[in-house]
Specification:
alpha/beta; Nucleotidyltransferase, domain 5; 3 domains; five-stranded mixed sheet; 13 helices; about 45% helix; extended
Length: about 375
């Protein structure tokens, strides 16, 4: 009402911190963020009309949440129960659906679908979907994992992550590997380009025009790539690629080469090559741990951005496309940013192993 003074708001340090977190939180619902900001601005002494104009709400809305906070503090910002039809499905039935989803399989499939669960439980498909969504159940999804059995896993992780996070002075850290058997594929019919309201279209079948193998060395600090395509990926080709790398790096630096345990990386030919160069140091990743070699991320980008949707009429055409991609990346290099410490990685793997062992023991 005109002339009526607004409720005065004073916040404790804890309340102010909580409200600011709600305003800044990325996962905070917009309604909750607006209510928190109303209270914060009210605590600054702003009139309801000014707050309403700044937040794009009505003055009545501002006054309402201001009063509710003054009366019940943070609890006053919660939504009150709304009227509606009573729930028809009891907790026991919901628990039955969740337990069945987690602990059993349908007779003729490897996982439940909403329709098969609806038939088994006697509920509707939409009800099963709501239950699964409420409990974050997605039976149709499956992920893969692989744990390394390398006895020196811990030592190798600490060694390689140390090179990423704290490289030696006057040293160059290179991640080296090869992407083998890249196929030069051409579509059997012309590509239909992207149009408004229509995605790019291509035929599902293709013609093969041979393969090539890409050897690549990623400069961890600079983000640049030294790459070379060769028809095969034996130890002899890998040694020739190391010669190429040597010609393209400063001669007065220590060179640390991170690579995996491929047989072509451990032959006598390669060991002798490193032995003749005391400034070059080989660091091998743990077995089944290609994720720790940053050049694998480059290979993923190359596949996604250049190869998978490309059409190449020959291996020469494919190699030219790969070279163009590397040149463009080197013209504007963006190094990958490694953030996890060795302790973070080992702790995460430890937690995963404990969860896996717990689940296995429960299933026995």
């Amino acid at each position: 009402m005109p002339g009526r003074s607004a409720v005065r708001i004073e916040l404790s340090d804890g309340e102010r911190t909580e409200l600011q977190a709600r305003v800044r939180g990325r996962k905070t619902a917009r309604g909750d963020a607006v209510r928190a900001e109303i209270v914060l601005r009210a605590a600054e002494g702003m009139p309801n009309l000014v707050i309403a104009e700044r937040l794009g709400v009505t003055r009545v809305t501002v006054a309402s949440w201001r009063k509710r906070f003054a009366a019940r503090r943070l609890d006053g910002l919660l939504d009150e129960p709304r009227p509606g039809a009573p729930r028809k499905i009891g907790d026991e039935k919901i628990a039955e659906v969740v337990t069945t989803t987690l602990e059993t399989m349908p007779r003729a499939a490897t996982h439940w679908s909403t329709r098969s669960m609806a038939r088994a439980s006697g509920l509707s498909v939409s009800t099963v979907h709501r239950i699964w969504r409420a409990f974050s159940l997605q039976p149709h999804r499956s992920e893969t994992f692989k744990l390394s059995t390398d006895p020196l896993f811990v030592e190798k992780v600490r060694d390689i992550v140390g090179l990423y996070l704290n490289p030696p002075e006057r040293a160059l850290v290179l991640c080296v590997d090869e992407k083998s058997q890249i196929q030069a594929l051409d579509r059997t019919q012309p590509l239909l380009p992207l149009r408004p309201g229509q995605a790019e279209r291509r035929t599902h079948d293709y013609k093969r025009h041979g393969t090539t193998s890409l050897f690549a060395a990623l400069d961890v600090k600079a983000g640049t790539i030294i790459g070379k395509c060769m028809p095969r990926h034996r130890a002899d080709e890998f040694r020739r690629f190391l010669d190429t790398v040597e010609k393209n790096v400063p001669a007065d630096l220590e060179i640390h080469v991170i690579m995996d345990n491929a047989s072509s990386h451990k032959t006598a030919l390669i060991r002798d090559w490193f032995a003749r160069r005391p400034a070059w140091h080989a660091h091998y990743t743990p077995t089944s741990s290609s994720w720790i070699n940053q050049v694998e991320r480059f290979f993923g980008l190359l596949t996604e951005q250049k190869i998978r949707r490309g059409a190449h009429h020959s291996t020469k055409d494919l190699e030219a496309a790969i070279t163009d991609y590397i040149n463009a990346r080197n013209a504007d290099p963006k190094p990958f940013r490694w953030t996890k410490t060795a302790d973070d990685i080992l702790a995460a793997i430890s937690r995963f192993c404990r969860r896996t062992l717990t689940i296995q023991s429960q299933c026995v």
